[in-house]
Amino acid sequence: MSTPTPAPPIATGASTTSASAPQTAPPAAPPAAPPADALLVATDLVKSYGPVKAVQGVTFHCNPGEVLALVGENGAGKSTVAKMLAGAVTPTSGTIIVGGEPLASGSVKQSRLSGVRCAFQELALVPDWTVAENLSLPDGAPLRGFSQKKSVAAASALLKAFDLPHIDPRAAVGTLSLADRQLVEIARALAGKPRLLILDEASSALTPPGVQWLFTRIRELTAAGGSVIYVSHRLGEIAEIADRGTVLRDGQVAGEFVRGGWTDDELISLMAGREAERFFPDPPERTTDAVALSVTELRSDGLDGVSLSLGAGEILGIGGLQGHGQAELLRALFGAAPAVAKEWTIAGRRIKSTTPVRSVRHGLGYVPEDRKREGLALEMSVGENLLAPWLKAYQLGGRPRLAMERGWIDGILSALSVRTRGSNELAGSLSGGNQQKLVFGRWMDRSRTVILLHDPTRGIDVRAKQELYGAIVDLAKQGVGILWFSTEVEELVHVCHRVVVLYQGKVADELTGARLTADAIVGAAVGSTGSISLTTDEEDLR
Ligand SMILES: Nc1ncnc2c1ncn2[C@@H]1O[C@H](COP(=O)(O)OP(=O)(O)OP(=O)(O)O)[C@@H](O)[C@H]1O
């Protein structure tokens, strides 16, 4: 991983994580007219799925060498626009012009020939194939031929050129961490030497150094005249990397913004169409010393003797770079991976080992890293997905239970503002962020002792994040112990009582009170004993 590049200067007032007074949504301005040399001009794009109008007349442009952010709440239509540009979705109507030439609609091949490459949060890699084989797919155009030897050598050179020497080209993609899979997906798109690179929440599983790696690649690309469409819910990243932005709301353009000319509150208001609220809630006051979960010298693949204790009603953050044992810790504690410990208790009861079904019975809940592989059945309904752990744990028949639980299901959908046509809609047709809400929502109001969270706000819009923070704090108030790994350091700093940082499968540091800062988390994450800074302005992270 390269040394983090310092953030370029941002005009005063940009992207403040704010607790200031709410502001009303500024009125939407008409989209700016594209200059003659615009690389991309999208005009009046519409996409309907039967009665669902995912995108309703979206117009925007992107100039050569520019990073254009596309922002909006979950379900606003960002991915649908990105997929239309990529040729993966055929517009119902509208035009897309790239480099002065109309793009044949709904053709991935034509989009690629026009120099468009994409990296999505929902990875398009083949998990059973090696990294080298995945890089040899058509999107990685320079790597031709499937000769193992040649493709491994070419992939090694490519990974080295992109400063990713830690990724083994011979490893099956499915065995990599989600963050490394995302890096491979981005490297594959970059290998196609794009004129227009679309990053659809491609940074969502990356920790700060991974994001800085991505920004270095973006700056290389734009310096060479390439353009980037950057879709993200992380407003700090947008402040740092985007030159301009287009805000989508309900499938329409709600407004545009330029670098340095906005605050978080203004952008949130524009996305939501209503006032912004305070961003991070404080962790609740603890009223008991009871221990919800404790483990001494927990060992598992990737864990080298982790000891920790989680109090009832405590929000305990897990920090660190991905690949240092966070995923393994949560999986081991839930019984999704074999593990042994010297001592292991849940709500004071000793256990020797566990399995997912036993964990649910013991009162545990788990939001896994990869919602598509471990969290959801996309071909099942929203309601069935919310009930999935309960059907398995108690072996109840599906349909009657679904009817009995209608009130609970509707309550969760409403509490988390899941954008759905109802509990019978297939989970697979929900936007990514709304799918993520289901994986969290299934554990709400279910008398849990402990909830294990792996980056639960990944891919979730800012308003939904606030709702989720509120839900986490409420669970803690009810006495639930929360163990929370996040790739967003600010969440750990603001919403957790305490943070343990993992490094090489061990607890490297425990941070609380005045020591609980973003720099301390990041420093401990790279094995540093002193404090290091990833930003020019500490206020950005604190
Ligand atoms: N294949 C589909 N069938 C039916 N509806 C769909 C389909 N794909 C998307 N939609 C709907 O279109 C709307 C826009 O979805 P889209 O994925 O573009 O949103 P998004 O802004 O990318 O959201 P997120 O931030 O959650 O990824 C949503 O209401 C979604 O449910």
Structure write-up:
It is a single chain. Helix 10 (about 355-360) crosses helix 12 (about 380-395). The chain is globular and about 70 Å long. The chain is built from 18 helices and 21 strands. It has helices spanning about 80-85, 110-115, 130-135, 150-160, 180-190, 210-225, 235-240, 265-270, 325-335, 355-360, 370-375, 380-395, 400-405, 405-415, 430-440, 460-475, 490-495, 520-525, and strands at about 40-50, 50-60, 65-70, 95-100, 100, 115-120, 195-200, 225-230, 245-250, 250-260, 290-300, 305-310, 315-320, 340, 345, 350, 365, 450-455, 480-485, 500-505, 505-510. The longest helix has 16 residues, at about 210-225. Strand 18 (about 450-455), helix 16 (about 460-475) and strand 19 (about 480-485) form a beta-alpha-beta unit. The strands form four sheets. It has a six-stranded mixed β-sheet with strand order 6-7-8-3-9-10, with helices on both faces. By secondary structure, the chain is an alpha/beta fold. It folds into three domains: about 65-90 and about 105-270, Rossmann fold, CATH 3.40.50; about 280-365 and about 445-540, P-loop containing nucleotide triphosphate hydrolases (Rossmann fold, 3-Layer(aba) Sandwich), CATH 3.40.50; about 375-445, no CATH class. Adenosine-5'-triphosphate binds next to strand 2, helix 1 and helix 15. The site of adenosine-5'-triphosphate (ATP) has 20 residues, from strand 2, helix 1 and helix 15. This is Ribose transport system ATP-binding protein. One of its GO terms (molecular function) is ATP binding. Keywords: ATP-binding, Nucleotide-binding, Repeat, Transport.
